[in-house]
Structure formats: C-alpha cells, structure tokens
Design goal:
Distance between the termini: 22 Å
CATH topology: Rossmann fold
Structural class: alpha/beta
Protein name: Probable GTP-binding protein EngB
CATH superfamily: P-loop containing nucleotide triphosphate hydrolases
Number of domains: 1
Largest sheet: 7 strands, mixed
CATH class: Alpha Beta
GO molecular function: GTP binding; metal ion binding
Organism: Pyruvatibacter mobilis
Cofactor: Mg(2+)
Family: Belongs to the TRAFAC class TrmE-Era-EngA-EngB-Septin-like GTPase superfamily. EngB GTPase family.
Number of helices: 6
CATH architecture: 3-Layer(aba) Sandwich
Strand content: 15-25%
Shape: globular
Helix content: 25-40%
C-alpha cells in the first residue's frame, strides 16, 4: 500500500476503536420479518455456519463477554438478534447476529422458517451495508457457504469473508486457507475481495473488522 493508503487505514482503525469503545446493547431478537426494527441506521450482519464463532466474534469486537450468547451446541442462535452501537444512539449502527446455517438437527419446518427469514432479511434490507460471512479457518469454504454466497450475489448484497479461529491451525495451513478462500471470493460478484483473518480468543484481526465497519458507516 502507498503512504496515503497506510494513513487512511490507520485513520479507520482508530475510528473503529473509538466506535467500539462505546457501550453496545441488545435491542431485540426477531423471528419474523414484520418484527424487524426500522432501517434507520447502517446495519452490519454476521453470518456463518453453526458454531463458527459468530457470537464470540461479536462479543470480542464489543469487549463484552456476554452480549451475544455463545454455546458449544450448534444451532443455538435461532433468531436474528439486533444490537445497537453505541447503545441508545440514533446515529449509531446495528450489529446483526444471524442464525447459523448448515445445522439440521431441528425439524425441517423450523429450518425452512429460519432459511426464509434469513433470505427475506438479506434480500429486502436497504440499510444493510455489509454481511460478514464467517468461515472457520481450520476448514475453509464449504458447500453451504457457497450457497449463501450465491444468495447474496443474486440479492446484490455486499459481503466479506472473515476467517475465524485463526489461532488454531498452523501458520502454513492458515496461509493455504487464506489463499484458497481469496480464490473462491474472486468468483463472486458481490464479494469484497479482501479476506479478514481473526481470532476472538487472542484479539487477532479485530481492529480490521472494526475499521471496515467504521469506514462503511461514513459513506
């Protein structure tokens, strides 16, 4: 990057730090489209396979251990959860925790209802600035991740991959997953080409996710 690019990235990292240093609060959980809050501020959604670490990432980004519920049981998040950042600030943003996909223990009717809710949300939310699609860095892109990519390509929803649990694989293995993921994303029209790499446990890469949100909030 050029010096100007470096300066801009540093500015956005600081803007993200300041934004996420303020309190974040839970607004509501939504199980039907008519329960969605007004689209009166920029929204940033987090999607991913069940147990990929969405709730852990949201907690790490906001510095709250219990803001989003975490569980070792796949499929725990069964509704769209909205959080306000900063809390009670109409000029802030919504962080949105989407139900995990790719988990089939629940009844087919419930899975269909969740899928319909997510599809309608992604396709019809004008205030949605970006979806961060979380991919476990130990496993890379799976078939049902590709299904979500295609859905967002069709809906013209901007999305960006965030690799999670980057402290788990060995360095060489992680680099291979990053390269293969970047190659996949170049094939998708609505995907942001830059892949973010994070580890909620260690804090690795969190500043870059915050910076992306701060930059998109400005536009």
């Amino acid at each position: 990057m050029s010096d100007a690019d470096d300066e801009e990235q540093a500015r956005l990292i600081e803007a993200g730090r300041l934004l996420f240093a303020r309190p974040c609060g839970f607004l509501k959980g939504v199980v039907k489209v008519d329960g969605l809050p007004m689209g009166d501020r920029p929204e940033f959604a987090f999607a991913g396979r069940s147990n990929v670490g969405k709730s852990s990432l949201i907690n790490a980004l906001t510095g709250r251990k219990d803001l989003a519920r975490t569980s070792n049981t796949p499929g725990r998040t069964q509704e769209i959860n909205f959080f306000t950042l900063p809390e009670n600030d109409p000029d802030g943003v919504y962080l949105v925790d989407l139900p995990g996909y790719g988990y089939a223990r629940e009844s087919k009717s419930k899975v269909r209802a969740w899928n319909s809710l997510i599809t309608n949300y992604l396709a019809g939310r004008a205030s949605l600035r970006r979806v961060f699609v979380l991919i476990d860095s130990r496993h890379g892109v799976k078939a049902n991740d590709e299904e979500i990519f295609k859905l967002m390509d069709t809906a013209a929803v901007s999305y960006q991959v965030v690799l999670t649990k980057a402290d788990k694989p060995k360095k060489g293995e992680l680099e291979k997953v990053i390269e293969s993921t970047e190659a996949v994303m170049r094939k998708h029209v609505a995907a942001h080409p830059r892949v973010l790499v994070t580890a909620s446990r260690t804090g690795e890469g969190l500043e870059h996710v915050r910076a992306e949100i701060a930059g998109l909030r400005e536009h």
